[in-house]
From TrEMBL:
Residues 83-171 form the Integrin alpha third immunoglobulin-like domain. One of its GO terms (molecular function) is integrin binding. This is ITA2B protein. It comes from Grallaria varia. It is a single-pass type I membrane protein. GO terms for cellular component: external side of plasma membrane; integrin complex. It holds the Pfam family Integrin_A_Ig_2. The lineage of its organism: Eukaryota, Metazoa, Chordata, Craniata, Vertebrata. The gene is Itga2b_1. It is found in: Membrane. It comes from the Eukaryota. Residues 3-76 form the Integrin alpha second immunoglobulin-like domain. GO terms for biological process: angiogenesis; cell adhesion mediated by integrin; cell-cell adhesion; cell-matrix adhesion; integrin-mediated signaling pathway. The keyword Glycoprotein applies. SUPFAM superfamilies: Integrin domains (SSF69179).
Length: 172
Protein backbone atom coordinates (compact mmCIF):
# COMPACT_ATOMS: atom_id res chain seq x y z
CA UNK A 1 0.00 0.00 0.00
CA UNK A 2 2.54 2.60 1.10
CA UNK A 3 6.26 2.79 0.49
CA UNK A 4 8.71 3.14 3.32
CA UNK A 5 12.48 3.30 3.42
CA UNK A 6 14.08 0.47 5.34
CA UNK A 7 16.68 1.04 7.99
CA UNK A 8 19.55 -1.35 7.21
CA UNK A 9 22.77 -1.87 9.14
CA UNK A 10 25.87 -3.66 7.81
CA UNK A 11 27.81 -5.82 10.25
CA UNK A 12 30.07 -8.86 10.37
CA UNK A 13 28.56 -12.11 11.57
CA UNK A 14 30.55 -15.38 11.70
CA UNK A 15 33.26 -13.96 9.40
CA UNK A 16 30.83 -12.87 6.67
CA UNK A 17 29.41 -9.47 5.78
CA UNK A 18 25.75 -9.23 6.75
CA UNK A 19 23.21 -6.49 6.15
CA UNK A 20 20.31 -6.52 8.60
CA UNK A 21 17.11 -4.70 7.63
CA UNK A 22 14.22 -4.15 10.06
CA UNK A 23 11.01 -4.89 8.13
CA UNK A 24 8.49 -4.15 10.81
CA UNK A 25 7.97 -4.44 14.53
CA UNK A 26 5.41 -5.57 15.40
CA UNK A 27 4.29 -7.35 12.24
CA UNK A 28 0.82 -8.83 12.06
CA UNK A 29 0.40 -12.55 11.46
CA UNK A 30 -0.02 -13.37 7.74
CA UNK A 31 1.33 -9.96 6.60
CA UNK A 32 2.89 -9.85 3.15
CA UNK A 33 5.65 -7.41 2.37
CA UNK A 34 7.49 -6.77 -0.90
CA UNK A 35 11.02 -5.41 -0.57
CA UNK A 36 13.13 -3.93 -3.36
CA UNK A 37 16.81 -3.72 -2.41
CA UNK A 38 19.62 -1.98 -4.21
CA UNK A 39 23.08 -3.08 -3.13
CA UNK A 40 26.27 -1.28 -4.09
CA UNK A 41 29.25 -3.63 -4.05
CA UNK A 42 32.77 -2.49 -4.87
CA UNK A 43 35.88 -4.44 -5.80
CA UNK A 44 34.19 -6.85 -8.22
CA UNK A 45 36.97 -6.78 -10.83
CA UNK A 46 38.32 -10.18 -9.76
CA UNK A 47 35.02 -11.80 -8.71
CA UNK A 48 34.38 -13.62 -11.96
CA UNK A 49 31.14 -13.36 -13.90
CA UNK A 50 28.66 -13.59 -10.98
CA UNK A 51 28.21 -12.74 -7.30
CA UNK A 52 26.04 -14.76 -4.90
CA UNK A 53 23.94 -13.46 -2.02
CA UNK A 54 22.30 -15.46 0.76
CA UNK A 55 18.91 -14.01 1.75
CA UNK A 56 17.11 -15.06 4.92
CA UNK A 57 14.01 -13.82 6.73
CA UNK A 58 14.34 -14.15 10.51
CA UNK A 59 11.84 -13.44 13.25
CA UNK A 60 12.91 -12.27 16.70
CA UNK A 61 9.65 -13.43 18.25
CA UNK A 62 9.76 -17.17 17.86
CA UNK A 63 12.14 -19.58 16.17
CA UNK A 64 10.62 -20.93 13.01
CA UNK A 65 11.64 -23.89 10.86
CA UNK A 66 10.86 -21.71 7.81
CA UNK A 67 13.94 -19.51 8.44
CA UNK A 68 15.64 -21.22 5.47
CA UNK A 69 17.93 -19.08 3.35
CA UNK A 70 17.59 -18.48 -0.38
CA UNK A 71 20.59 -18.14 -2.69
CA UNK A 72 20.43 -15.38 -5.31
CA UNK A 73 23.08 -15.25 -8.03
CA UNK A 74 23.51 -11.96 -9.89
CA UNK A 75 25.62 -11.75 -13.08
CA UNK A 76 28.49 -9.27 -12.95
CA UNK A 77 29.54 -7.38 -16.04
CA UNK A 78 32.26 -4.76 -15.91
CA UNK A 79 31.74 -1.80 -18.18
CA UNK A 80 34.30 0.79 -19.17
CA UNK A 81 34.33 3.26 -22.00
CA UNK A 82 37.76 3.86 -23.49
CA UNK A 83 38.67 7.00 -25.41
CA UNK A 84 41.75 7.45 -27.61
CA UNK A 85 43.00 10.98 -28.18
CA UNK A 86 45.89 11.89 -30.42
CA UNK A 87 47.71 14.78 -31.98
CA UNK A 88 50.79 15.51 -34.03
CA UNK A 89 53.44 18.13 -33.28
CA UNK A 90 53.58 20.06 -35.56
CA UNK A 91 50.05 19.35 -36.79
CA UNK A 92 50.98 20.17 -40.42
CA UNK A 93 54.29 19.50 -42.16
CA UNK A 94 55.28 20.41 -45.73
CA UNK A 95 58.60 19.45 -47.30
CA UNK A 96 60.05 21.71 -50.00
CA UNK A 97 59.39 20.36 -53.53
CA UNK A 98 63.08 19.82 -54.30
CA UNK A 99 63.93 18.21 -50.97
CA UNK A 100 65.93 14.97 -51.10
CA UNK A 101 66.94 12.78 -48.20
CA UNK A 102 70.63 12.05 -47.73
CA UNK A 103 71.17 8.32 -48.17
CA UNK A 104 73.27 6.73 -45.40
CA UNK A 105 73.26 9.83 -43.18
CA UNK A 106 72.80 9.44 -39.42
CA UNK A 107 71.62 13.04 -38.91
CA UNK A 108 67.88 13.45 -38.27
CA UNK A 109 67.54 16.58 -40.40
CA UNK A 110 68.82 14.66 -43.45
CA UNK A 111 65.79 12.35 -43.25
CA UNK A 112 63.04 14.98 -43.14
CA UNK A 113 61.12 17.04 -40.63
CA UNK A 114 60.60 15.62 -37.16
CA UNK A 115 56.93 14.96 -36.34
CA UNK A 116 55.92 13.67 -32.93
CA UNK A 117 52.65 11.76 -32.59
CA UNK A 118 51.19 11.62 -29.07
CA UNK A 119 48.28 9.34 -28.19
CA UNK A 120 46.43 9.22 -24.88
CA UNK A 121 44.19 6.33 -23.90
CA UNK A 122 41.61 7.36 -21.29
CA UNK A 123 39.28 5.17 -19.27
CA UNK A 124 36.00 7.07 -18.89
CA UNK A 125 34.71 4.36 -16.52
CA UNK A 126 32.74 3.41 -14.66
CA UNK A 127 34.85 0.26 -14.10
CA UNK A 128 38.61 -0.04 -13.93
CA UNK A 129 40.38 -1.85 -16.75
CA UNK A 130 43.42 -4.07 -17.07
CA UNK A 131 44.94 -6.08 -19.89
CA UNK A 132 44.03 -3.50 -22.54
CA UNK A 133 45.73 -3.91 -25.91
CA UNK A 134 46.04 -0.95 -28.26
CA UNK A 135 47.24 -1.70 -31.79
CA UNK A 136 48.28 1.43 -33.65
CA UNK A 137 48.95 1.09 -37.39
CA UNK A 138 51.24 3.82 -38.74
CA UNK A 139 51.59 4.15 -42.53
CA UNK A 140 55.39 4.23 -42.69
CA UNK A 141 55.68 3.35 -46.41
CA UNK A 142 53.80 4.49 -49.50
CA UNK A 143 54.44 2.89 -52.90
CA UNK A 144 57.58 1.16 -51.63
CA UNK A 145 59.10 4.48 -50.44
CA UNK A 146 59.45 5.71 -46.88
CA UNK A 147 56.56 7.98 -45.89
CA UNK A 148 57.23 8.23 -42.16
CA UNK A 149 60.53 7.13 -40.68
CA UNK A 150 59.71 5.68 -37.27
CA UNK A 151 62.40 6.55 -34.72
CA UNK A 152 61.06 5.48 -31.35
CA UNK A 153 58.04 4.41 -29.33
CA UNK A 154 57.56 5.24 -25.68
CA UNK A 155 54.90 4.94 -23.00
CA UNK A 156 53.98 6.58 -19.70
CA UNK A 157 51.86 5.29 -16.85
CA UNK A 158 53.05 1.70 -16.47
CA UNK A 159 52.16 0.48 -19.96
CA UNK A 160 54.17 -1.95 -22.02
CA UNK A 161 55.02 -1.26 -25.63
CA UNK A 162 55.93 -3.79 -28.31
CA UNK A 163 58.12 -2.25 -31.00
CA UNK A 164 57.46 -2.63 -34.69
CA UNK A 165 60.28 -4.35 -36.62
CA UNK A 166 60.62 -1.31 -38.96
CA UNK A 167 61.52 0.96 -36.03
CA UNK A 168 64.64 3.05 -36.87
CA UNK A 169 66.07 0.58 -39.43
CA UNK A 170 69.01 2.88 -40.38
CA UNK A 171 69.85 3.50 -36.71
CA UNK A 172 69.62 7.29 -37.11
Amino acid sequence: QGQEKLSCNPKKENGTHVVLCELGNPMKAGAQITVDMELSVSGLEDMGDAITFQLQLRSKNSPSPSNASVTVTVPVEAQAEMELRGNSLPDTTVLPTGWQGVEGSRRLEDHGIKVEHVYELHNKGPSTVSGVTLRLAVPHQLGGRILLYLLELGTDGGMNCTHHPALNPAQV
